[in-house]
């Protein structure tokens, strides 16, 4: 049917040849300015999407179950907790909490940036840590971003990817969401490094005060924009998997 | 672009806006900055030109759900658990206030970006706001659509109306002074049919109804969107696929920039860089997004009705089932395929329909021509460069709506909704 429409467009084209000129009704006919494959048999959408489905996922059935588990946990536990958190704390406090944990996170960012021998980036992250920890009072404020030192994240998964380690199988982690074998290993290393560094003594104090870890988890959910069901598609799992894997490729390449 | 071309473009666009101003009530000096309809459709309005709106902290809102099809709930496979009840979002004012229903565009979820924008806009102006998913969306099809075969506007309007009545009952404590209705894209067309149905049912007696960038002829719109994936993009001749080539461009762009920054300004900045997308690539992107929606519709409709085009009837499905084989089939089914295999046979059987022409007539604004002409409470906003229109559609709107059509010279498909002049006009229309 689209073929007939295209023919009709071709036949009426001379009437509206002027670039971005309008017809008698004032319509500019934007599609007429496109280069369209004349045979209408281009299968690039199909080729691209079928190609995008090809992500190594040998544990797919298990992963899909974890996806549904996460979705339920999110709806019934985590998001209600986040809503409660939003109700009892003023916005300024929530921003302070986010900044504080984000500043802690700049430690693994710096380590991984150094491991990848990224000199300029390491300097910038060092600058962020210095300004935010001092002027920003232990990271409660983020003056570094205002000075133009934007947050740049580097984790051990990225470092491994940087040195050529492949993704490995896709993994849907309970509560934490999409990942792959390489990045899951990276998470463990970053976590261990953070407790070793014990920056601002937080790692040590947290072991006696689980409420700090809890607050960090709530803040993590609060500041992560992903909502399960947001894509509103029966194929959300596949789409998340694709986006995760490509976003990681992008972070590693950059 | 050489200077003379820029000047020529400027001359053409200013002529255009003058022409538009002479014919309709569009503002004479229209400042929406993007004159490329593809870019406007994808990027929307630059942040600094959007109106100031209330933030989430200032809005008393919540998500609610309804059990509209109890007999279907048990039949749906377990991996459909999130969509067994129809969810919607309500933002409530403290005291009595008018209530506005907002209907999403094709495949759209009630919490999508444009829906959230409209909610903030109307909530800020003092309305209670109810956000509804499109009848073509996965959640609405599963939880609220009695036949789960969307695309026939009359039936879609009945499903929407049932949901709206049920919401009114569920929120009976809400103090409502009067009812309003709006929707963008397909949601605009849906609004017209819902308003028409309300003239008989009289539950809401909508005071005013606004259609934002609606399709005029639904089939023209669908065909246009399908045609976009036939745009000639360079990827076809290379080894990598179209998506790979886009990601490659994005990677180069971030490498040049020195770091990754995803924000509102990304697309404008990207289009200024050497990696910029051609019109054909942007068209391909818009067309692809529509094809994704079409495959969701084809899959969901087929599964709920057990038609067996994509999923074999009675195929066991649960949370762990690998859906990729079915997705592969669904991706090959464009909107024409959905119409031929599912919508038209359904409509023939139920409505004793004949051919495609009759279906087009019944599902497009043409079917409501007399009603729309005689109803001063209904207005339409549209763009002279909207991708979903065809030749003659604006003529139809002008003849039918007369003064009640506001035609903007640019904006692509819904790209200027959040431009401050447009949002101002949307509020003023309801203020009356």
TrEMBL record, chain A:
InterPro entries: MlaA. GO terms for biological process: intermembrane phospholipid transfer. Keywords: Lipoprotein, Signal. The keyword DNA-binding does not apply. Residues 1-18 form the signal peptide. It comes from the Bacteria. GO terms for cellular component: membrane. Belongs to the MlaA family. This is Phospholipid-binding lipoprotein MlaA.
TrEMBL record, chain B:
The keyword Lipid metabolism does not apply. The keyword Signal applies. Residues 1-20 form the signal peptide. GO terms for cellular component: membrane. Keywords: Signal. SUPFAM superfamilies: alpha/beta-Hydrolases (SSF53474). This is Serine/threonine protein kinase. It comes from Pseudomonas fluvialis. The lineage of its organism: Bacteria, Pseudomonadati, Pseudomonadota, Gammaproteobacteria, Pseudomonadales.
């Amino acid at each position: 049917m689209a073929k007939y429409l295209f023919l009709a467009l071709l036949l009426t084209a001379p009437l509206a040849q002027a670039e971005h000129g309008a017809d008698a009704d004032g319509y500019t006919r934007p599609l007429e300015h496109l280069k369209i494959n004349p045979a209408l048999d281009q299968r690039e959408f199909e080729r691209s999407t079928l190609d995008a489905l090809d992500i190594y996922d040998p544990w797919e059935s298990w992963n899909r179950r974890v996806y549904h588990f996460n979705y339920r946990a999110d709806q019934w536990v985590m998001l209600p907790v986040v809503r409660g958190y939003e109700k009892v704390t003023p916005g300024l406090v929530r921003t302070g909490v986010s900044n504080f944990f984000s500043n802690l996170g700049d430690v693994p960012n710096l380590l991984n940036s150094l491991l990848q021998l990224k000199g300029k980036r390491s300097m910038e992250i060092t600058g962020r840590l210095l300004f935010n920890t001092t002027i920003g009072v232990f990271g409660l404020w983020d003056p570094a971003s205002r000075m133009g030192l934007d947050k740049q994240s580097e984790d051990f998964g990225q470092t491994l990817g940087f040195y050529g380690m492949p993704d490995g199988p896709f993994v849907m982690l309970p509560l934490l969401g999409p990942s792959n074998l390489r990045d899951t290993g990276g998470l463990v290393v970053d976590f261990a490094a953070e407790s070793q560094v014990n920056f601002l003594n937080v790692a040590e104090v947290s072991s006696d005060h689980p409420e700090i870890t809890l607050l960090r988890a709530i803040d993590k959910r609060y500041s992560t924009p992903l909502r399960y069901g947001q894509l509103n598609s029966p194929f959300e799992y596949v789409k998340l998997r694709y986006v995760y894997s490509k976003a990681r490729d992008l972070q590693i390449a950059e | 672009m050489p200077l003379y071309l820029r000047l020529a473009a400027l001359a053409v666009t200013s002529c255009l806006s003058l022409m538009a101003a002479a014919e309709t009530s569009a503002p004479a000096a229209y400042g929406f900055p993007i004159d490329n309809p593809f870019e406007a459709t994808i990027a929307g309005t630059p942040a600094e030109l959007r109106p100031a709106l209330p933030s989430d902290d200032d809005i008393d809102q919540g998500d609610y759900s309804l059990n509209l099809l109890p007999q279907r709930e048990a039949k749906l496979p377990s991996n459909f658990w999130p969509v067994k009840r129809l969810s919607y979002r309500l933002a409530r004012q403290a005291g009595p206030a008018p209530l506005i229903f907002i209907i999403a565009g094709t495949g759209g979820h009630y919490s999508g970006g444009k829906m959230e924008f409209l909610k903030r806009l109307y909530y800020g102006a003092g309305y209670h706001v109810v956000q509804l998913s499109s009848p073509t969306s996965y959640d609405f099809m599963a939880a609220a659509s009695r036949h789960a075969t969307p695309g026939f506007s009359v039936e879609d309007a009945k499903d929407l109306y049932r949901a709206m009545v049920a919401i009114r009952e569920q929120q009976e404590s809400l103090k409502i002074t009067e009812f309003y209705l709006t929707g963008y894209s397909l949601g605009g067309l849906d609004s017209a049919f819902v308003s028409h149905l309300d003239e008989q049912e009289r539950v809401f007696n909508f005071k005013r109804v606004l259609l934002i960038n609606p399709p005029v002829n639904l089939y023209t719109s669908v065909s246009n969107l399908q045609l976009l994936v036939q745009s000639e993009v360079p990827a076809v001749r290379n080894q990598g696929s179209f998506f790979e080539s886009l990601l490659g461009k994005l990677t180069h762009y971030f490498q040049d920039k020195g770091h990754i920054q995803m924000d509102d300004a990304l697309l404008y900045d990207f289009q200024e860089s050497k990696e910029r997308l051609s019109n054909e690539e942007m068209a391909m992107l818009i067309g692809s997004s529509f094809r994704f929606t079409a495959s969701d519709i084809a899959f969901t409709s087929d599964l709920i009705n057990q038609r067996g085009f994509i999923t074999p009837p009675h195929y066991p499905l649960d949370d762990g089932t690998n859906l990729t084989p079915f997705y592969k089939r669904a991706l090959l089914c464009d909107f024409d395929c959905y119409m031929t295999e599912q919508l038209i046979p359904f409509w023939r059987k139920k409505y004793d329909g004949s051919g495609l022409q009759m279906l087009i007539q019944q599902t497009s604004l043409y079917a409501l021509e007399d009603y729309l002409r005689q109803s001063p409470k209904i207005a339409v906003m549209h763009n002279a460069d909207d991708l979903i229109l065809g030749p003659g559609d604006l003529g139809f709107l002008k003849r039918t709506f007369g003064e009640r059509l506001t035609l903007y010279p640019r904006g692509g498909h819904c790209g200027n909704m959040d431009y401050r002049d447009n949002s101002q006009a949307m509020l003023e229309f309801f203020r009356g």
